[in-house]
Write a structure and sequence with these properties.
The protein has one domain. 8% of the residues lie in helices and 49% in strands. The protein is built from 1 helix and 9 strands, in the order E-E-E-E-H-E-E-E-E-E. A hairpin with a 2-residue loop joins strand 2 and strand 3. It is globular and about 40 Å long.
Length: 123
């Protein structure tokens, strides 16, 4: 993995892990991934296909630079849960209020009891 290049991370429904893709190739599967300078992206055509066919495909992901847990700021009041449901939303949204979330300074992507958890962190 080139740490100076962005990766795209998405939840792999078949393997039940986070898939890390760089330059179009899946390079790793992980239970937890930390990113910085995060963009939360949803492909419009891919989402439309999911809604139309009622069959999921990879069209939404977090894009950023892999970082270490110690790189994340320790500011609990600046952490927000983020979610995405193609049948309800056109973008990633804040879980507490449903407002769009397009970026984060950092992201903690992990599994809890087999379920994907995505938290955005701001300084």
């Amino acid at each position: 993995m080139d740490i100076n290049k962005r990766v795209n991370v998405y939840f792999n429904l078949h393997k039940r892990v986070w898939s890390v893709r760089q330059s179009g190739v899946v390079i790793e599967h992980a239970d937890q991934v930390f990113l910085k300078d995060v963009r939360l992206l949803v492909g419009k055509k891919g989402r439309e296909k999911v809604v139309r066919e009622q069959r999921k495909n990879v069209h939404a992901y977090a894009s950023g630079y892999v970082c270490e847990p110690q790189d994340l700021p320790n500011v609990p009041e600046r952490i927000s849960a983020i979610t995405y449901n193609p049948y309800k939303h056109k973008t990633f949204v804040f879980k507490d209020n449903g407002k769009p979330c397009l970026t984060a300074e950092y992201a903690d992507m992990r599994l809890e009891k087999g379920r994907p958890i995505l938290e955005g962190i701001w300084k």
